[in-house]
Amino acid sequence: MTFRSQPPKHPPMTDKNDAPPGAALPPLALVMRAALFAAEHHVDQRRKGARQAPYINHPIDVAERLVRIARVTDEATLAAALLHDTIEDTSATGADLTQHFGAAIAAIVAEVSDDDSLPSRARKALQIERAPQLSPPAKLIRLSDKISNVREMEINPPHWPVERKRRYVAWARKVVAALGPVNPALEHRFEDVAAATEKALDALEADETQAGAATPDTLTRAKALASTPPRQA
Q: Taking a C-beta distance cutoff of 8 angstroms, is the pair 37, 109 a contact?
């Protein structure tokens, strides 16, 4: 699941000095080109958290975690991580990705792209069902994506009820479990993030319950008592 505003309605910028389609690129150029492509296609999108962060922060977060925690150095995997929401959430197509980045990267992105024509419940079920069959690069991206999204439930949550946030974390746990072994360091990080988010939701729910206990009648009595002059000793 992603948290996003509506995709941009205008075409992304293009570089007139782009290399011809299919031209060989140095490894770093491939990753940077993927970052630019993603930034251009997500340019008008925002995350749905309270901070309304630029959407591009999310794919960068996913790719950065693969490098820092999972020690991924494969350029195709990192490029696909940066591009992982472009088919699902922007005007970009699989054919566009094939043209600019090759069939292998386009295929990885397609693996982690939901079909938005399906109802939300069906998309969630398919993520769990298909998780074991994902390629190794797609599994890495899916796991890092879930870490990023679950972490946002704690640090920059969407304006959802606590129970909906709980359901999202529980579903993310099911997806990650269905992936099977992926990367021990990344799996450990997911567990830490999920546990921290669940703890934060527990605290938030407790605060809301306590606040709800202060009914109008209770508040009226409290104000009356506060305004009553103290008796002389």
A: no
